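2024-03-11 09:14:02 DEBUG pipeline.ingest accepted 1 chain
2024-03-11 09:14:02 DEBUG pipeline.ingest length=81
2024-03-11 09:14:03 DEBUG pipeline.predict start
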Amino acid sequence: ILKSIKRYCQLTLRLLAIEVKSDRSLEQLSGQLMVSNHLSYIDALVIYSLVPCRFVTSVEIEKTFLLGQLTRLGGCFFVER
């Protein structure tokens, strides 16, 4: 599932005409904890397009109409703040 999410994010970024460049492969980060404070939803697409990962988000996002469904499909972990 994570590989299909990665491809979906790459396609979405291409449709938005956003080019992602990385100076090294982030695949080696698999199995490690990465902490990032992203500033927009585009940031999450970029991170997902570079490395298979899962995000931690609040239960408030899970309850949001469309965004909640997308985050569940993306395999997010939901936590109470």
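2024-03-11 09:14:41 DEBUG pipeline.report The mean pLDDT is 84.
2024-03-11 09:14:41 DEBUG pipeline.predict end
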